[in-house]
Amino acid sequence: MGCTFSGLNALYDSTNVGGHVWINENRFKIVRQLGEGGFAYVYLVKEAIPDSSAASPAGLANKVKDPSHLSDDGTYAMKKVLIQSNEQLELVREEIRVSSLFNHRNLLPLLDHAIISVKPTQQGSWNHEAYLLFPVHLDGTLLDNSKAMSAKNEIFSTSDVLQIFRQLCAGLQHMHSLEPPYAHNDVKPGNVLITRRKGESPLAILMDFGSARPARKQIRSRSEALQLQEWASEHCAAPFRAPELWDCPSHADIDERTDIWSLGCTLYAIMYGVSPFEYALGESGGSLQLAIANAQIKWPAGPKPLYPEALHQFVTWMLQPQATVRPRIDDIIYHVDKLILKFSQ
First and final CA of the chain: distance in angstroms? Predict the structure, then answer.
């Protein structure tokens, strides 16, 4: 018939809880919805292992290159994307391509994917659906954890702050060390998965490579500068966006240090739950862009005990408005390792 296994998803509403979804030759049961945003839905799924006597391949284990990415209990996270245009289709294909470039324990791996054609219905005008399969981390994002801890007046210890941050640095170092270097372009607490571990600092994994692109761009005209600003406004969260992506000069060399700015904002957020510039959104006449352009950081009076001043200085070092004097990821790692040594004694 020429019908792929994944194509069977289009024959019925496969993403009801209890339903099944095919991703290539492997079938997964929908356990529950984990989240949604825009045209994407994230589900907890469980692999339906085929009968070993059947002629079909023996599940996902035959496909995944790194066995450490396989789940002990067969559960995974599946992102379903509703695609309404050729532009959206190309963006999803680019996310899949870029995700396949990375192999690091602090970067979320794409285990499998499928894109299928569907007929538009009265309920929606999409013409393709994409299914992306990832390891699942049920403790949620750094943003989720920060909100939950804030509600209970809890904070991360200095040691946990540094260990979480060190892991994000390791993931970014992998991206920045590729040839050509890649920038994540949307580093923020909502894109960091956390897994709590008894007796250890949390495991931190950077996810969502939908905005990741080659980091180095030569801007040589006002038109190119405006194009970059427009792209950044759609792909980089405003409170974590580097100054050069807000107001790009007509002659500039953009590089992976846009991520360093976002990393500095994220370190602040690990400590205090928000970007260092979000205060401007709540001020009468306040301007987020102006606060970022001038690196106007406001430090909270709490918590008690206070975080060490060395961490504040570390954040300030990363949040330099001039990208050319901002440190690179190797510099950041050198200094965070010194801080870990200092505050673990």
Answer: 66
Could you tell me where the beta strands, DSSP code E, fall in 106-227? 112-117, 128-134, 182-183, 192-195, 203-206, 213-214, 217-219
Please provide the CATH number assigned to the domain covering 142-343: 1.10.510.10
> 6-134 belongs to which CATH class?
alpha beta
User: CATH 3.30.200.20 residue ranges in the chain?
Assistant: 6-134
Residue at 291: amino acid letter: A
Which of 234, 230, 205, 235 shows the shortest CA–CA distance to 219? 230
**Per residue of the chain (345 residues), what is the pLDDT tens digit?**
344 554 445 444 456 777 999 999 999 999 999 988 888 999 999 999 766 545 444 678 878 888 888 888 999 999 999 999 999 999 999 999 999 999 999 999 999 999 998 876 656 666 899 999 999 999 999 999 999 999 999 999 999 999 999 999 999 999 999 999 999 999 999 999 999 988 888 999 999 999 999 999 999 999 999 999 999 999 999 999 999 999 999 999 999 999 999 999 999 999 999 999 999 888 877 799 999 999 999 999 878 788 999 999 999 999 999 999 999 999 999 999 999 999 986
What is the rounded CA–CA span in Å between residue 93 and residue 87? 10
Q: Which regions of the chain carry the CATH code 1.10.510.10?
A: 142-343
- What kind and span of H or E run contains 172? helix 158-176
